[in-house]
Each structure stands twice: as C-alpha cells, then as structure tokens.
Design brief:
The protein has about 400 residues and is of the alpha/beta class. It has helices spanning about 10-20, 45-50, 70-80, 100-110, 130-135, 160-165, 185-195, 220-225, 240-245, 260-270, 275-290, 290-310, 335-345, 380-395; strands at about 30-35, 90-95, 120-125, 140-145, 165-170, 200-205, 235-240, 250-255, 325-330, 350, 350, 370-375. Helix 3 (about 70-80) runs parallel beside helix 11 (about 275-290), helix 7 crosses helix 8 (about 220-225) and helix 12 (about 290-310) runs parallel beside helix 14.
Length: about 400
Amino acid sequence: MNSLMQQLNPYPFARLRALMRDINPPEDLQQVMLHIGEPKHATPQVIQDALVNHLDGLAKYPASKGITELRQACSDWLQRRYDLNVDPETQILPVNGSREALFAFVQVVLDAQGADKPVVISPNPFYQIYEGATMLAGGEVVYVNCNAPDFMPAWQDINAATWQRTQLVFVCSPGNPSGAVMQLDDWAALFALQDQYGFVIASDECYSEIYFGDDAPLGSLQAASLLNRSWDNLVMFTSLSKRSNVPGLRSGFVAGDAKLMAAFLEYRTYHGSAMGLPIQHASIAAWQDEEHVRLNQALYQQKFDLFVGALQAAYEVSIPDASFYVWLKVPNGDDVAFAQRLWQTQAVQVLPGRLLARDTPQGNPGQGYVRIALVATVAECELAAERLLTFAQRGF
C-alpha cells in the first residue's frame, strides 16, 4: 500500500455524516438538503440529444487528446467568453471533469525528487482535491487563508522560505465557498509573486458561468492577456458540470501554457484518461450553446434574490459575486453547533465552514460560517429560507 495514502484526510461530507449521525430531524418536516454542491437543474435537451445521437462512438477507442471538433469548440468558447485566441492544437485538452484534471495535473507538475518537499499553496477554505493530490504526489500543502471582507488569499502570510520551495499555487475564482472573484489587481499581485519565485499557477474556474449582474468573472488567461503577459506556467481548468447542469457527464477542459499541455497529454495517455466519443459530442453541443447558460443563470438569480432577500431580516448575508453558494456568517460563531441544531429542529442540512478548511497559525477561516448550496428547487430554497428565519426567531 502506498504509505502516502495515510496522510489523506476524511472528505468534508464524511465528517458531516459523523457529526449528524445521532441527530434525527423532525419527522413532520420535509428535509431540505443544501450541503452538497451538486447541480439539480435539468440537463439541457440539446446536450441529451447530442449524446444519444452519437452512441455509435462507444465502439471506438477515443484519443487522449480528444477530437479536433471538441478542441475547436472549446477554443471558440474561450474567444466568445474571454476574447482570447487559444490554439486548439497545442493549448487545449479535454478532460473528464475538472476534478480528475486538477488531481492529475499535480502529478505532472510536482517534482518531489529533491531534498526538500515541494510546496503547493492552496486557498483556505479549499476544494479537497488540491490537498489530496499534493499529498499523493509527495508534496507539502501550505494553506493561505481567505478571510472577510474580500475573501482573497492573504499571500502576505507566506514567508520567503516557503515561496522559494513553492512549485504550484492553486487559485479558485469564483471561489468555493465564498463566491469571491479575483479582480485584475489581484491577478497582478499573484503574477508578481510568480515572476519572483517561478511557480506554476493552476486556476480552478468551474463556477465562472454562474454569476450575478452584468460583469462576467475575469478569467486567469484573460487577466494575463490584459496585463500583456504570456501564459507560461499558467493553466486554467473549467467544467460543464455547473455551467450546463451535467455533473454526471464528467466533461471539461484545461487550457494555457503549451509546454505544460504537452506534458499533461503525455501523462494522460499513460493514465488512460481519454473521454468517450459520445461524451465529446455532447460536450461540443454544450460549449456551442449559450441559451441554456442564460436560463441557468436566471434561475439561480431568482433563488438568490428570494433566499438572501428573506435572510437579511435576521442574518448578515449578501448575494456573492458568483457561484451557487451562500457563505453565511453564523450569528453565534459556532458553525458546527449551528448546523447540527438547524438539522435537528428545522430539517435543513448545511455544511459547517470549518470542515472545508484547515487550522493555521492565523486561525481556521471557515470557522463561524456555514456553506449553503442553492442547488435545490426554488420551492425548496424558499422553504429553507423560512426555516432559517424561524431558527433565528427561536434564538438558534
């Protein structure tokens, strides 16, 4: 057995199950599950049709690089969305969802052959794949806290000696769980550190198409281009799961530095990570269609307006820049007790923020918050808002 497996931490949802194991919600209340960020909106028909119409592709081995038409569809989307010219031949790779790609990318980038463990810097709170991938690649995770009011990483907390060992930095914008979006000045600050220390940046942008207002979130490659930088040592990760409500399709792509793409393709060829042809054709249909994305955004906007508007009577809460999460500050400061009591009395399940973060010398930035995923129906979100208000009125 790989001894590095022993370093892995339980997933947040496993820890949540343990916290809720002996708690029974009222039997007369409908349970509302808002703890997992799994999209629940209907999968667009255009994607379903494309999948069904290409089932003959199941009889063929797919290439790890994907078909030209899919890479071109991804390139076209990047042009429309970010005004970028991305070479579909050398700067784009289809992947089986951003999750597997984020994990695999760390195995490619990290070099653990030296005397010191290589460092990977992760935002805190964070998506647990960043941590697990680093540990299994023989690296050391250093957490950078993302605190209120802007929830941007506090890069100043990382000392020079750590930066000098850093090989990879993860960023997540729009952020999970806060929904905060990195602005151009934020990217400029990170790029300045990259110039000084030479690390790779992996930008997780899977929530980029769920946003509120007229301004779409800035992307990493877009920010680099606006700052007249090359894409050396910069890779973005995106997915159809949230954008197109197809978490079961397992489809996304990575784009950026052509040298890293070449190495990543070689790794993926050995790893057996090729995307099936029916999935590729369904993905083409998804990336080419924007109507369903606008409808998806409108539905989330409706839920956030309703939910946040109701909660403002009793909680300190606002609509985030993007994503489908409400990062709710807990009035009594104890996120675990809040979540347990909410489940016990109101049958609404949310995720304690500390389960998404790690303790650091600067504290645990998730403590005192709960993450609420507004992925359920409008009616269920409205019901959850009513229950949270009742919870507040009864003194938690």
